[in-house]
Amino acid sequence: MKVVAIRGCFCETFTEVQRQTPNVKIKQTVTHFAAKQALELPGAGAVVRGKLVDLHTGYFLDEAPESEREARREHLEAFFDASMDVYLAALDAGYPEAEAREITHVIANFDFYAHGWFEMMEFPPEEIDDHEERYAGFFADHDITVERPLGEFTPENGLPDAPEGEGGEAVNAEGGFEDDTYVEDAEGNVKPADEADQADSAA
After folding, report:
1. Which of 42, 86, 105, 193 is deepest in the core (most CB within 10 A)?
2. Residue 193: pLDDT band with limits 50, 70, 90
3. Phi then psi for 107, rounded to 5 degrees?
4. Would the pTM of this model clear 0.85, i.e. be above it?
């Protein structure tokens, strides 16, 4: 099975979120506890959550055809907002921060796949089953499937509708990593998450 270096910024600190860093590849720069705190602190958590929703929505809309962006915006905003609860649930279940973050990106790609938004996908469509298998236990516990990517975290009134895409080529997808969770460090080096954790601890 192959796993792409999922791009994301769920782990950014308050300062990094406020800067709205354009490089949104995963950076293992904060601890499991700090990442959880950032979203759960009264008041501040809502601010961080909102900024992360805006960051992810803006990033992925930039990869969509310009003519389709506004039609997808409301759906993506609601999806990424709900995915914050998935992230926290993964942390509560004991997943390392990098894997909790990867889970949220995997389910986002499930949603892109289900809508035929292949140009927004981070890994090739043919790797969907591999990624579903990778976190099969967590997905089963929370009723998450490719067809229902938020599972039990789906908002009570559902997600806003958005037009289906035409599939086509996943022009922004990256594949080729072996079975591991990969992150990109501050120097731009891609490495397994456990090595990044060790480097952060030693810093």
Report:
1. 86
2. low
3. -70, -30
4. no
